[in-house]
Amino acid sequence: MVHSDSDPPLLNHYGTLLCHSTQWDEPQTRVTMEECQLPLINLCDLGSDDEMVRRACAAAICKASSEWGFFQVVNHGISSQLVDKMRCEQVKLFRAPFETKATSGLLNNSYRWGSPRATCPNQFSWSEAFHVPLTKVSNEACYGDFKSLREVMTCFAAAMSELSRLLAGILTENLGNWKQASISNICDETTCFLRLNHYPACPISPEIFGLVPHTDSDFLTILCQDQVGGLQLMKDSKWVTVKPNKDALIVNIGDLFQAWSNDVYKSVEHKVVSNATTDRYSIAYFLCPSYDSLIESFVKPSIYRRFTFREYREQVQEDVRKTGYKVGLPRFLLKGSEDLTTTTTESNTRLYIPSITAKS
């Protein structure tokens, strides 16, 4: 295995888990997965002069969020030139020496790698990431020698933020006569994140995850990925591989939107599988509310009790510290509502969340 001095010591960490782990999950066997084409939505239709076309586009977004928890969008308003520039800067950043990334305080000291809380090999993620609060994206002091990254990343974050609020507004409006504050009012830069991901090639074992199975603890996530592929999601109780589309961004529902919608929208388990020969890069934007925002199901009777985003984060972090696993939404079920929950929600009890998903 060829190791670059830019890569974190993933092999050493994984080897330590193999030698010292006292907890063993069932081995993960790499099998050929069915490839799926996510629902594809042309956002140009939202600007159509024909009201029926606009309504059909909004309905497609809501249907995909209910049936898949995932969809992809084209003509989303983020230029291919901006995406290419962002990818170029991202690659330069991750090719910096590991010590530079880990010790120089880049991007608000947000660098993470591997899975520090993993207690067994199947909880380990073969990846590294910068998980950057939006409040720090334009801060010149965060970039060190990577000054050209700042302008591109600021523009990219702003475009992703605008798109996330557009989609969240459509999904919220679909829920009906909603009396509480809109998502746009409760989400701000203090809790939203942009995460730059790098999955180094991993030829040592087909059993290693690039990112372990998980759900996202936000309202929604927008993902810009390269053409290497590796994203898989749970559909109809089986894993399916998402076929990359160079013109599309991928959108997925998070735990908070599932709770807010009373399970109308689904927060679906997903993962990244490692690639034996090729590095993979992606960028994710996470739309989160302020920490004290109240999450309450809009339909009665509610499946979940009321909780704040701060309470949810703290509970997830406590579970991960104690057990290595995220429990998530089932912790917030109202008594007697267990039978109403979806298969997706029940699956959350098995999910481990590594440090690079610190927003959870």
Can you describe what's shown?
Helices cover 32% and strands 19% of the residues. The protein is globular. It has helices at 10-20, 51-67, 80-94, 98-103, 106-109, 134-137, 147-173, 183-186, 255-260, 309-323, 343-347; strands at residues 34-36, 40-42, 70-74, 111-113, 128-133, 193-199, 209-214, 220-225, 231-235, 238-242, 249-253, 270-273, 280-287, 294-295, 307-308. The chain is of the alpha+beta class and 360 residues long. Helix 3 packs across helix 7. It has an 8-stranded mixed beta sheet. A 5-stranded mixed beta sheet has the order 1-10-9-12-7, with no helix packed on it. Strands 14-15 form a two-stranded antiparallel sheet. It has a single domain (29-175, 184-357), classed as B-lactam Antibiotic, Isopenicillin N Synthase, Chain (Jelly Rolls), CATH 2.60.120.
CATH architecture: Sandwich
CATH superfamily: B-lactam Antibiotic, Isopenicillin N Synthase, Chain
Count of DSSP E strands? 15
> What is the chain-wise order of helices and strands?
HEEHEHHHEEHHHEEEEEEHEEEEHH
Summarize model confidence as the mean pLDDT: 87
The secondary-structure class comes to alpha+beta
Number of structurally distinct domains: 1
Largest sheet: 8 strands, mixed
CATH class value: Mainly Beta
Distance between the termini: 33 Å
**Secondary structure tally, helices:** 11
Question: What are the segments in which pLDDT stays under 50 over at least 5 consecutive residues?
Answer: 24-30, 341-360
The oligomerization state is single chain
Spatial order of the strands forming the largest sheet: 2-3-11-8-13-6-5-4
What is the fold-level CATH name, i.e. the topology? Jelly Rolls
| Principal-axes shape call | globular
Strand content: 15-25%
GO molecular function: 2-oxoglutarate-dependent dioxygenase activity; gibberellin 2-beta-dioxygenase activity; metal ion binding
Protein name: Gibberellin 2-beta-dioxygenase 6 isoform X1
InterPro entries: DIOX_N, IPNS-like_FE2OG_OXY, IPNS-like_sf, Iron_ascorbate_oxido_reductase, Oxoglu/Fe-dep_dioxygenase_dom
Organism: Gossypium hirsutum
